């Protein structure tokens, strides 16, 4: 069983207009590599030049912010749901 990935609207042009994907990966880092393999160019939108997650992109695993877990090393298990959420600024 794969991990379910919820893709935000701004990134759906890179996923062939798919809002929900099934991907493989034992961690967030592996999941990003899997996404890049299936949808070339998406990693550049999620990670900076050093391969670190961009500050304005938030990842949640089963509604838990990975910044409070293990970041890119957060483990994933089959059936997990990963949400990619762009940060919203305003005032």
What does this structure look like?
The model has no long low-confidence stretch (mean pLDDT 94). With 91 residues, the protein is α+β, with helices and mostly antiparallel strands. The termini are far apart. A 5-stranded mixed beta sheet has the order 2-1-5-3-4, covered by helices on one side. Helices cover 18% and strands 23% of the residues. It has helices spanning 28-38, 42-46; strands spanning 3-6, 20-23, 57-61, 64-65, 81-86. The longest helix is centred in the middle third of the chain and has 11 residues, at 28-38. It has a single domain (3-86), classed as Ubiquitin-like (UB roll), CATH 3.10.20.30. It contains 2 helices and 5 strands. The radius of gyration is 12 Å and the shape is globular.
Sheet with the most strands, sense and barrel status: 5 strands, mixed
Morphology call: globular
Strand content: 15-25%
Helicity, as a percent range:
10-25%
Return the domain count: 1
Helix run count = 2
The CATH architecture designation is Roll
- How far is the N terminus from the C terminus? 41 Å
CATH topology type: Ubiquitin-like (UB roll)
The SSE order reads: EEHHEEE
What's the CATH H-level homologous superfamily?
Beta-grasp domain
Which class of secondary structure composition applies to the elements?
alpha+beta
- Rounded to an integer in angstroms, the radius of gyration calculated over CA atoms is 12 Å
Low-confidence stretches: none
The count of strands amounts to 5
The overall average pLDDT, rounded, is 94
Report strand order across the widest sheet. 2-1-5-3-4
């Amino acid at each position: 069983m794969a991990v379910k990935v919820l893709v935000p609207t701004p990134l759906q042009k890179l996923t062939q207009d798919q809002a929900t994907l099934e991907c493989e990966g034992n961690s967030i880092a592996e999941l990003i590599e899997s996404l890049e393999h299936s949808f070339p160019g998406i990693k550049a939108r999620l990670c900076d030049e050093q391969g670190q997650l961009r500050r304005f992109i938030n990842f949640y695993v089963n509604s838990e912010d990975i910044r409070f877990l293990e970041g890119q090393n957060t483990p994933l298990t089959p059936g997990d749901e990963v949400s990619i959420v762009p940060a919203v600024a305003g005032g």
